[in-house]
Amino acid sequence: MSCLQQDMKQVRKDAVKFTEQLNPSKTDTNESATTLLTYQNGSQYLYKYSGTGDQCLVVEIFADKGSQLDLVASSALLSRQHYDAAYSPTDDDLLRYQSIRGQAILATGKVPTIRPAMLVNWHGDGGIPLPQNPDWRLTLLTTFNKSARP
Questions:
Q1: Are 33 and 22 in contact (CB under 8 A)?
Q2: Distance of CA 25 to the CA centre of its chain
Q3: Shortest CA distance to 116 belongs to which of 128, 105, 106, 126?
Q4: CB–CB of 48/37 below 8 Å?
Q5: Helices marked H in 28-146 — which ranges?
Q6: Contact (Cβ atoms closer than 8 angstroms) between residue 16 and residue 40
Q7: What is the pTM of this model?
Q8: Distance of alpha carbon 49 from its chain centroid, rounded?
C-alpha cells in the first residue's frame, strides 16, 4: 500500500529509534494494512492505512502517557474504520450531526457555530468527517502529488 510506505518513510526520517511490527493482529487485507511502532521509551503507536486507488485513510491509536497500549481493544477499534471513496454526506449524517450539536447545546448552553470539517479531495466524491470534540485535534496531514492527494 503506497500510503503506508510513504508515511513510514517520513516517520523513519523524523523519529527516534523504534521497532516496527507489520500486521500485528493478522487482520490486514488488500485494502488495509496495520503497523505497530514501539519506541525505546516503551510507548506504542498502532496505525491503520486503508484506501482505494490513490485515496488513503490513516488512523493512529496511542495510549496516554504512563499507560500501555491495549492491542486487542485498539485492533477492534481499527477494524471498524475504513475509507469509502463513494461516500457523500447523507440526510442521516446531517441528523446525526444535529443530534451531536443539540447535545453540545444542552451541555454548554451555547449554540456551536462550527460546522463539521470534512477531509475531501478536489476531484470527486468521498470524504472523511473530522471529529469536533475538544479531545481531538489534527496534528499532521501528509499530502502527496503537490497536495492533490492526502
A1: yes
A2: 18
A3: 128
A4: no
A5: 71-79, 91-108
A6: yes
A7: 0.52
A8: 8
Q: Which residue type does 42 have? A: G
CA atoms lying within 13 Å on the CB side of residue 132: 15
- In tens, the pLDDT along 7-53 reads 777 777 776 788 889 899 898 888 788 889 888 888 888 888 887 66
Quick one: cell of 44?
506504542
Angle at CA 29, nearest 5°, toward 118 and 61? Answer: 50
Strands (DSSP E) along the chain, which ranges? 18-22, 32-39, 44-52, 55-62, 118-120, 127-129
Cell digits for 92? 442521516
| All three cell numbers of 106 | 444542552
How do residues 54-73 score in pLDDT, each as one tens digit? 667 788 888 887 788 888 88
